[in-house]
Amino acid sequence: MTLYEGYEFYKSVQGTKYDVNDLEKKEKLQEFRNNLGNFTDKIFKDRHSLLALEKGMWQNSGNFTKYMWNRYKYKDDNSSLVIYFNASTNEEGLFVSIGLIDNKLSELEKINSQKIYDYLEQECKKINSIGFERKNTGWGERVFSVIDKENFETLDYDDLIQKLKKIYDDAYKKFYLNQDNNTKNRVFNMFRQSLNQILFGPPGTGKTFNTINKALEIIDSDFFQANKDDRKALKDKFEEHKKAGQIEFVTFHQSYGYEEFVEGIKADLDSDEIKYKLEKGIFRKLSNLAELNYRKSIATIETKKDFDTLFKEQILDKLIDDEKLKISTPKKHFFITEVNEKTIFFEKAEGQTDHSLSIRTLKEMYESGKNEKIKGGLSVYYEPILNFLLENSLFDKVDEEPLKNHILIIDEINRGNISKIFGELITLIEPSKRIGAEEEIKVKLPYSNDEFGVPQNLYIIGTMNTADRSIALMDTALRRRFEFIEMLPDLEVLKGIKVEEIEIYKLLEIINKRVEYLYDRDHTIGHAYFMSLKENATLEELENIFKNKIIPLLQEYFYDDWEKILMVLGNGFIEKKDISDDIFDYKVNDYLEEEKSVYKIKDKFDFSSFK
Question: Are strands 406-411 and 247-251 parallel, antiparallel or unpaired?
């Protein structure tokens, strides 16, 4: 009997009552299921660990089922993604499909299932050899293609499965893998972030301000997306995670070193005698905390299978191949002969029939782990079935603790001596070298001699002021291991702010064009200096900004070259006064200039040139 002939026979009997004595039907259906399994195993062979996860039965609860299936996925894959080969008696017929195992979705998969299906549908429709469609049927949502009798023999299954496997792999990378594409650490994160990133740009462009957004996007992306316009909510949530130990903040400076960052020997100031002790630095403390969580998240405990799954595997499936299922007790045995939706029928060893047990009662006993509800003669039958199920119940591996991302924020990262501070960590922070990655590396620390590695759930966010030090001068090793995100003055956030007809975004635009002409883009002025005007759009506040922030910054940029500062601001801010050499009684021409000028910041500013 060919596979398609078996399928036609299966369709003809579906929905009818299963009779254990009808050996002809039983043998034909068993042959069809075996042929279907062998056929799909063959076309999935050598697909890089795509293995059969489950082969659906053709009989359940005394009836022939509406569909059978073989589903395939990666052996070590903890997602619900799966490729199916189905035989259905509905209009679909024989078909191949890709989708999610609906009854095993994680919470995040439930939230994002439509995005996953949108992607699967989009990619499957690019397969030209066979048409795919998306449909929600009685067996769940799938993206599938019917294999009719005409193309069953001629279809290029090798090409088809290769293309489906690529879609599977791409979907996995897009929706399940962390940024480093490490197959051992499956982190479902729809808003993926680089493990190491530096926000860089001129002063006042919101680099430190945006570290809060970045941190929350990594730790709690759902909260961030829902509240990204509510600064107070974001700040409160940031502080909450900081108190919980998931976020640490440090500022680098010239005297900051490896001993403060990783570990070092320090004097014990609490001791009456001079003693020294090993002290962990901020990076090692946070790494240890993140690694502990990472280890707990992949540590697993065995749990009982749910009753319905176990009952199907240990009783219903075995009744398919055997007319009776023998259950042994310490003194004797009995046989389960038939099962319907509510009842287990059994035969005593002596041959007496017409005895039954309640599946619901058995389920309650299994889930409670006790048989106290059963009194009298039937307990001697419930108890051995319960023990039989419990013996085979351990199967699920469940995470003890959810994986949590941890963040180290390094403000002014370029002001420290990177090589001195990071030491050997410069290699360990690479995504491919982190704990659990394919090329995991651990080193022995110089002071403690402990083995140390960097976990994959520790993110590093640095900020870098390009006016202090050019990115080109950064340590080359650091630049290779970080993703750099440029942050420039954002004029859009200043639009709508006016102070006595002065449009602030235009004022800053003019100033920055002049600075860029005289210096470079890295020394422009950030929008953050003017943000206080949103709440207090007064001339007094604007003058305070220029007097206390803008002019001192320009003095630093141009090394007190007041002529350049005048070119940037115009005459409305700086007063220039020429000094004559007639102040001297005795003159030496070598010390005299043809013209000498002094500069003074005006008491009252004139912004008219910016209107």
Answer: parallel
**DSSP assignment letter at 475:** -
What are φ and ψ of residue 184, in 5° steps? -90, -20
Q: Check: CB of residue 294 under 8 Å from CB of residue 403.
A: yes
pLDDT in tens, 74-131: 655 567 788 877 777 665 567 888 888 776 676 567 767 888 888 888 888 888 666 8
Question: H/E element holding 144?
Answer: strand 140-146
Least Cα distance to 115 among 60, 171, 170, 166 occurs for: 171
User: What angle separates helix 504-518 from helix 562-569, to the nearest 10 degrees?
Assistant: 140
Write the pLDDT tens digit of every residue in 545-599: 999 999 999 999 998 899 999 999 988 999 988 888 888 888 888 777 777 888 9
Measured distance CA(459)–CA(407) in Å, rounded: 5
Q: Average pLDDT, stretch 52-77? A: 64
Give the number of other Cβ atoms within 10 Å of residue 278's Cβ: 13
Helix (H) or strand (E) holding 280: strand 276-280
Pairing of strands 196-201, 483-486: parallel
Sheet containing 355-358: which strands, arranged edge to edge? 325-328, 333-339, 343-348, 355-358
String of b and e for 472-488 (b: at least 16 CB within 10 Å)? eebbeebeebbebeebb
